[in-house]
Every structure is written in C-alpha cells, then in structure tokens.
Amino acid sequence: MPSLSVFGAQWGDEGKGKIIDLLSDRVDVVVRYQGGANAGHTVVVDGVKWVLHLIPSGILHEGKVNVIATGVAIDPIKLLEEIDGLEERGVSVGPERLRIAANAHVIFEQHKRIDGLSERWKGDGRIGTTGRGIGPAYSDKASRTGLRICDLLDPARCAERLRANLAEKNAVIGKVHGEELLDVEAIVQRYVEIGARLAPFVADTGAELRRAHRDGRRILFEGAQGVMLDIDHGTYPFVTSSNTGPGGIPSGAGVPPHAVGRSIGIAKAYCTRVGEGPFPSEMFGDDADRLRAAGHEYGTTTGRPRRAGSFDAVAVRYCLDLAGAAGWIMTKLDVLSGLGDLKVVTGYRIDGEEFSEYPAHLPSLDGVELITETLPGWTEDAASARTFDALPDAARRYVERVEELVATPIVMVSVGAERDAVIDREPIFGADWPASAPTPEGALS
Ligand code: GDP
After folding, report:
1. Which whole number is the average pLDDT over 401-411?
2. Would you say residue 441 has pLDDT above 70?
3. Which of 130, 228, 256, 301 is most enclosed, with most CB atoms within 10 A?
C-alpha cells in the first residue's frame, strides 16, 4: 500500500510545491485533498517558473494522474484559467491526467464578494483571508446550502440551487453590508456553461483513489497551507477553513485512514506567516526586512509581504507530532547565509509556565515570552552544496541543532528553488516503496 503524504509544518509557504514536484517522479497519482485556490505552489523546472493554485504539481510530469479531491473548495473559473494556462504553455491537461471530484464544493461569485465584505465588517478583528471565497464556500458546505461540482453538470438543478443560495447572499450583501446586489441570472448562466466545460474531468474520485490504492498504485497526497493554519488544531480563529495536515486526508480524499501512508513534514529554516494571528517568533524592523528580502517572502497568490521570523521549534515540533511525521524536509536553508547569528525559539513561557510544544488549548498567546537559543550564522554560500558535508560548518550545526530541538529526523535539506538544489539525508519513501508502478500507467478509471 504505497502512499506518502507531504504537508506544511508551519504557517504555509514552506516550499511544498518544489518538494512535491520533486517527489512526483516516483509516484503515479498526486492528490489535493483540502483548501482552495489560496494555495500557490511555485515550481521551477529548468529555470522556468510555474505557479499552480489548484492543480497538483504532478501535472508537470508526464504520465501522472492528478486528482482534485472532495475536500477541496473549487473555484471553477480559476481552475479553467489554470487548465488553459498550462495548455498554452504546452502541458496537456486531458481528463486522463486530471480528475475532479464530483462531490467537491464550488466557490461562486457570491462567496468571493461575501469574503471581502465580511473581512471589512470585522474591522480590526479581520482574519486576513486571501479574499478568494474559500471560507464562505466551506460555510455553505457546513450549512448544507452549498453546491457541488456534480450540481453544475445538471443545468436545472444548478439553476434552482444557485438561485436559492444567491437569494440569501444578496439579502446579506444588500441588507447587512449595504452593497449592490449580484445579478442572479447572469451568474446562473455563467456557471451552467462552466459546468459543461468541466464535465469531462468530473469523476467519483474517492472510488478511483480507493481502487488505485487497492491496485498498489503509488499515491502522493499533497497538503496545502500548513498545520498551524488547520481549522481545528491551528491558531484559531486565524486559520484556514479546512484540515490541512494528514488528518484531513481520509475525509478530504475519500480514502480509509490506513491509505494515508507515511507522512513527511516540510518547514523552512526560518518562519513566515501571511495574514493576521499569532506568530510568536516574528521579527520586526531591519532584521525582518533583510530576511524577507533574502527569502523573497511575498505571497505567490496575493503578492502580500509575508511576516517573517526566526525558526520556531515549538510550533514545528507540534505540527510534526500532530501528523505523526516520520521525518521532515528543511527548505530555504540557503536564505540564511549572511544574515548573522540566528535565533531559534526553543520554548514558550506563558504566565510562568513553560511549553516545549505549541499550547493548543489556550485561547490566545497574548503575553507569550520566548525561550530562545542563538546559533552562529555563516557568510559562505550554502546554495551550491549538494551533500551535507559541503555545507558551511555553521549551517551544518544549525541543521543538526534544529533537528535535535524538533526531535524528528530531517530527511532532506533544500538549498535553492531548482529541483536539484537538495541534499538527501535519509530516504523519504519507506523501504517498501516500489521502484515502479505495478499496473499500467495512465488513467484511473
Ligand atoms: P508553498 O506554497 O509551500 O509551495 O511555498 P511557496 O511556493 O509560496 O514558496 C516557496 C518559494 O520558495 C518558491 O518561490 C520556491 O521556488 C522557493 N523555494 C523552494 N525551496 C527553496 C529553497 O530551498 N531555497 C530557496 N532559495 N527558494 C526555495
């Protein structure tokens, strides 16, 4: 039963796109199981940059099947733009390579509008969402008023459910927010047309994935965002609207828990966070600016400058523990070259009590005092190293000390955006991972 899950072990933007792309070579199927087009994986292949928001990065590899599973909130307009963009650049995205869950929920215009208005309404208490309508679409899913991809394929049903949904949304837009109402019939017509375009890709992806798993196909589950943004286990309410870690896979992909396989976390050698909410190791002023500039820490999807800070071993340890990670990959170590001595957060002290793991039970982290350690920095280049021994001495010691603090093996270190800019330390795939697929490659159905 070969499957592997890869997830963000911080607040997102850990460099998952590059790692997933790298691992895709050894798998048959790549699956997105949660989140929406707020993920923005950047992959650089032979110097060419690709940004993927919804489609798994396996699409850049021939012969791989890519699944957008049930737990994803799908903005079909963004999805079609992504398909067209890939096709224009010569990547074929036929239904044999891309499968879209019939029972995934759809993000409509009204969700995007409500997202922005609701943030405005919250004022200083805003979450800092990407404004892509993801939270409101998940709200509709929980309220049982949402529409699923399969509803788009039936024009009469789509029109009926969409009109009902829009009637309520327009009441909120007009009466609560005092804004111009959405044009119901224009939206209905647009989404019925979109449904027809998506139809060839739509499938019972849960059944396909369970069958693929039974057949021994090698499956990679790709997490979006990070565990600190998990709706249940993250820094609520400043979180995303889904379960971001491997815990979200069984429900999000429609597979049994034992199909999740081995889990590998991904965390940067430092920390960033987008949007509002607790970020204990945050740096400010010149130090933050230098780190942000060195790491190009600006959102892929929104272009927003990311908040930047020191490596937080408390948060990473918590994410890896929650996910039961067998190991983790440290990314962007090269960024720390030349930034001077490096602080690492080793514990939190709150009201006199010390925590070495993230205290998920507290309502807030107000007044948290950081327990830190300062490690020597380095000025030499780390980006050209391809073996652990080739790293500058201080960089090697940094990796080893962080690994010790987090208490989970660092299986790979990434030192650049390119595919080959990695240092292997331990195997990522389990010993039972087959070198090649046992059944013919290609379509799942
Ligand atoms: P994701 O959402 O987790 O995939 O992360 P992002 O795509 O937002 O951010 C990762 C960015 O860092 C992308 O621009 C990558 O090309 C780049 N990147 C990934 N790994 C490394 C690395 O080890 N070093 C450097 N310098 N850049 C990296």
Report:
1. 98
2. no
3. 228
65 forms beta bridges with 29
Residue 330 parent element (H or E): strand 327-331
Question: At 220, which helix (H) or strand (E)?
Answer: strand 219-222
d(CA 305, CA 198): 34
Mean pLDDT of 286-307: 88
Rounded to the nearest angstrom, the distance between the alpha carbon of 444 and the centre of ligand 1 is 30
* 417 Cβ inside 6 Å of ligand 1: yes
Q: What is the DSSP string of 99-115?
A: EEETTSEE--HHHHHHH
Q: Is the CB of 414 under 6 A from ligand 1?
A: yes
- Using alpha carbons only, how large is the chain's radius of gyration in Å? 22
How far, in Å, from the CA of 331 to the mean position of ligand 1?
8
The CATH architecture of the domain made up of 105-201 is Orthogonal Bundle (1.10)
Handedness of CA 420, 225, 255, 76 (dihedral sign): negative
Residue 183 annotated among the catalytic residues of the structure? no
Q: Is residue 332 in contact with ligand 1, taking CB distance under 6 Å?
A: yes
CA 395 to chain CA centroid, Å, is 27
Query: pLDDT, tens digit, for every residue of 159-191?
Result: 999 999 999 999 999 999 999 999 999 999 999
Task: Reply yes or no: is the peptide bond before residue 257 cis, omega within 30 of 0.
Answer: no
Which two tokens mark 212? 């693929």
Q: Which amino acid is at 274?
A: V
Q: What is the reported pLDDT for 206? A: 98
Closest by CA to 242, choosing from 428, 79, 107, is 107
- Can you give the pLDDT at residue 47? 81
Architecture of the structural domain at 3-97+204-424: 3-Layer(aba) Sandwich (3.40)
> What's the predicted TM-score (pTM) here?
0.94
Which segments of the chain belong to CATH 1.10.300.10? 105-201
Q: Which residue matches tokens 């990695």?
A: 422
Looking at the DSSP bridge assignments, the partners of residue 263 are 5
Instruction: Check if 41 is active-site.
Output: yes
Q: Look up residue 258 and give its amino acid.
A: H
Q: Taking the chain, what is the end-to-end CA distance rounded to the nearest angstrom?
A: 19
Gap between the Cα atoms of 38 and 136, Å rounded? 13
